[in-house]
Specification:
With 155 residues, the chain is an alpha/beta fold. The protein is 39% helix and 19% strand.
C-alpha cells in the first residue's frame, strides 16, 4: 500500500503495516474508520494527514530486528524526513521503535522527538489501531495522551 497525503502536513500517521481490511488505500478497513473518527475529533480531515506504513504489505509475523538490520529503519527515517510533517503519530510502537532503533517502546509515555540530520519532529507512539478498537480503556488513555501532547489539555 502506498502512502497518501501531502508533504509538510500537520500530522503524519504511521502504522506498522496495512491492516487486513485494506483494499484500495491504506487504512480503508475497520481500523481506518476508527482513525477517521479520531481525526475528526482532532479537528483534522483525512486529506490533511499524511498516511504511511513502515512495511508496504501486511505480514503475518514480521521480524522487526531482521527488517531493521536489512536497512528498513533507514528507509523509514528517510521517508519521515521527506514527508516533513509537523508531528508524527505512530500506531504499533513496538515494531516501528525497533526499526528506528531508539528504544521508544521503553519510554514511559512514548512521547518525544524524532531527530534527523535536518531537524527534529515531535513524535508520539501508541498501540496499534486494532488494539484501540478492542479496548475502550486504551482509547481513553490514548486520547488523554493526545490532548497532553498537543497542548490542548492545558487550554
Amino acid at each position: 500500500m502506498p502512502p497518501s497525503g501531502a508533504g509538510h502536513s500537520p500530522l503524519m500517521v504511521l502504522v506498522a503495516m496495512p491492516e487486513e481490511g485494506d483494499r484500495e488505500t491504506l487504512l480503508s478497513g475497520k481500523a481506518g474508520h476508527l482513525l477517521a473518527a479520531m481525526l475528526a475529533a482532532m479537528g483534522l480531515a483525512r486529506d490533511q494527514v499524511y498516511l504511511a506504513s513502515a512495511v508496504p504489505a501486511r505480514t503475518a509475523l514480521p521480524d522487526w530486528e531482521a527488517l531493521a538490520s536489512a536497512g528498513l529503519g533507514k528507509v523509514l527515517a528517510h521517508h519521515i524526513r521527506l514527508a516533513a510533517p509537523q508531528r508524527v503519530l505512530v500506531f504499533g510502537r513496538s515494531g516501528i521503535s525497533t526499526l528506528l532503533g531508539n528504544g521508544w517502546a521503553q519510554t514511559a509515555a512514548n512521547l518525544g522527538n524524532f531527530n534527523h540530520h535536518s531537524g527534529s519532529v515531535a513524535m508520539m507512539m501508541a498501540v496499534d489501531l486494532e488494539a484501540l478498537l478492542a479496548s475502550p480503556g486504551l482509547k481513553s488513555g490514548f486520547w488523554n495522551r493526545w490532548l497532553e501532547w498537543t497542548g490542548i489539555a492545558q487550554q
